[in-house]
Records
---
Amino acid sequence: MALTALCATCNGLVIFAALVTGTDTATPTPARVAAPTQASPSPTPTRTPTPTLAWTPTPTPTLLLERQVVVPPKESHEIRFDIDRDSMLACTITVSGGNNDIDIRILDADRQPILYEPRLAGTNTVRVSIPGGQKYWLVLDNSFSSRTQKRVQVRCVATPP
């Protein structure tokens, strides 16, 4: 036997079940039923704008020089090059011989140093921002060495900003 009643505090239906055995009636035990759920309103879909991608070309580096030079002890070697537009100059220099080191200078058109890297050893890349329309010199200086020549592999590229 089951009795039903509305539960005002939980806004739901409560079912009471009675256990019948012989003539005794058990005390009704409430069984909870889940309250009815109310449907939440559906969110209004919104459009997500699709970003427009602008293509920006990557500046192409210009190879300025690539060579191997032997610099005798107590001497230096200069390599002249021209830059036609403002650029980032990057020179990769590999030195072998003696302590595998050499002094590097980059000189502007007035032969003033715009970069000086003393005793570069092994393989290094030096970078400097330079204005275009000028002559420049890369100086490989081994004047500090009294006995050993240096074999220097040089590769310089200019990349516009």
Note: Confidence is low (pLDDT under 50) at residues 1-7, 13-24.
---
Amino acid sequence: MAKMSLSVTGAKEMRQKIEALSKDIPEVAERSAVAAGNVFSKGMKRRIKKRSGRTAGTIGIRDINRTRGGLKVTVGPFRYSEIGKLSRAYIARFLEYGHDIVVVTGKRRSAGHGKRYGRMVNATKVVGHVPAYPFIRPTLDEDKDIAMREARAEVEKAIARVKR
């Protein structure tokens, strides 16, 4: 029977590098999630139908929450803009899904029973329709691979830093 020997060198250094990487995992995960969120944010801004650009200015990353399974990054139009003022983010849903143009016609109902003024009854009339100009769903569908690549690149950068 032949004898075989094995010697391992660099085990101490390898263990130190693995420990250094394990300490950086939460920060690396957050950076990779933000990188993916930035891809979606830029995609939405690129696809939104712009008139004044104010609605596009409300798109961004709002929250990064740690969940049981990882991180949750909230991306999209938000009620408050970067400067803290109320924004026009509510318009985004009308752009995404379309809407009816409705006119409210106020009509006075008869008062009855000797009353002088009747109650105002609001009747609505649809006078047109604005089509949908989706920008959120197409961004999620078309940019998910790019976002995953960006997230993966952030993790690979962290691994490369530890390797050195």
Note: The beta strands are 59-67, 70-77, 99-108, 120-130.
---
Amino acid sequence: MTNITDWDNKKQSAGGHPHSAQKGNKRRRLGHQNAISRWNFTLLLLLCLVLGVTACSPGGNAAATAPSATSATDETTDEAENTPVETEPTPAEAVFPVTISHKYGTTVIPEAPQRVVAIGYNEQDALLALGIKPVAVRYWYGEAPFAIFPWAQDEAAGAEPEVMEMAWGELNFEAILALDPDLISGVYSGITEVEYQQLSLIAPTIAQSGDYIEFGMPWQEMTKLVGQAVGKAEEAAALVDKVEAQFAAARADNPAFAGKTIAVAYANGDGTYGFYTPEDGRGRFFTNLGFTIPDELVEIAGDSFYAHISQERLDVLDQDVIVFLGLQFLEGGRATIENDPLINQLEAMKEGRVVYVPLDCDDALQFGSVLSLEYALEGLVGLLAAATE
């Protein structure tokens, strides 16, 4: 791949160009803190073990026991104020223990999780779709209260999870520990093996499959993995089937999509551009509709799910259709691209074979989850059909 810095990688892995929330956002937050050192983290865990707060072992093969809803306590504080949002009771408890395989090995989850912490950037959607209300989620970008976007409001049913602001590569282990989780879901988090081992000292932790590049696990498999972890594998499979049927219907209604080449692009604001590959959920959305992302683009990206290109190579974006997403992160938005003389020399631009992704659809496309994809399909299929006429 070309012209990619570590900072670029952090931005792209967190939704393109994440930005801080503005004042007035009505969501509870665990303020952003730097990750504590491994040594301090180990001392903290030893202290907690002595105090009986948690009992875990590396790799997630022995999990912290979830607190019982009926256990006695010496405290007399108001239960309604101190009991976080938990999972709904489920008959799926009969399937436990379950063993989850992932890129760092296997994780044993001994019983139905009651306190799930989602450190993946979009995993709250899969959990909410399965009836699981996480006690905490990870902030990605935007102003959605409690990091729950419009497509997940019905499933959230008033849930108010803690929102953890942790930059990519800077997990706040102390804050995660304080949440007393019995499952840490990190499938779309990009955690390293060292981070996985540290998280597993707190609670059973799941990561993405090793079959894909970082952040490249398809939404179908991610949904099923999360479903298996919470004892709802059948429900997860049914959710996947439902959304896949919607993609199939869109393909059937729009046979012109089949075989058309597409560039799933974004503007950097400095006259350069970038694109996503089929290894990324944003690129995969369009290939699932029948479009093709050319091999040339995949080769430029190499082992990454995206790449930046210089002004001299804008020609690689000149495909049957160009889609521009992430306009909300671009100063000037759509107008910046429309007023760029270089990009407008491309034939696709001259002939109007361009789709500018609207804001609401852009959020849904960025998330690429089992809940958001239906939202994205409703808003984008018509625009794509017009661009391929």
Note: The domain at 19-66+79-234 is CATH 3.40.50.1980 (Rossmann fold).
---
Amino acid sequence: MITKHMEIAIFQHLHKLGVYLCFEVGMPYFSEHSQQWLLTGGRCDERVDLLQYDSKGVWRFYELKLTKKDFYSKHKHTFYGHYNYFVMPIGLYEKVEKDIPSHVGVFGVGSDNANKLYVVSLKKAKKQSLGIDEEALKFKFMQALAREVSKHIFSEGCVIERKEEQEVLNAANT
């Protein structure tokens, strides 16, 4: 299993009406000097692998871990949400279970005999207070969503050639 497969599996599992998801969302950071949340600089290298916001105002943070080495790496586990989760291969859970904090949930990703991926809840998360300024988090979430839209719009096949664009505009004005 590779990370991209795990990303697709968890996205499909979580995606539904009223649930908004985005990969690789940078975190704001708290400046001790100015005593406020800042949107740029500082901890700009801190990102959550997958961030979820729902229509009830609940934030869920997901960290994807593919291997034991990845789980124990120096990269920060970004868990500021009301609910926080690891997403990992089912077999990895058995190897790291004892080192998962009690409030953090786990989704396991496995594959059946036909190599079709599935997601199962292995451990429920416990609700926490939001550990980060919500307005700053919303801004970073929107910023990341805009980045994803831009990547899609400007990907190959999505860009309208200038000539076609002019033809569309001319047709609209007639």
Note: Residues 3-172 form one domain.
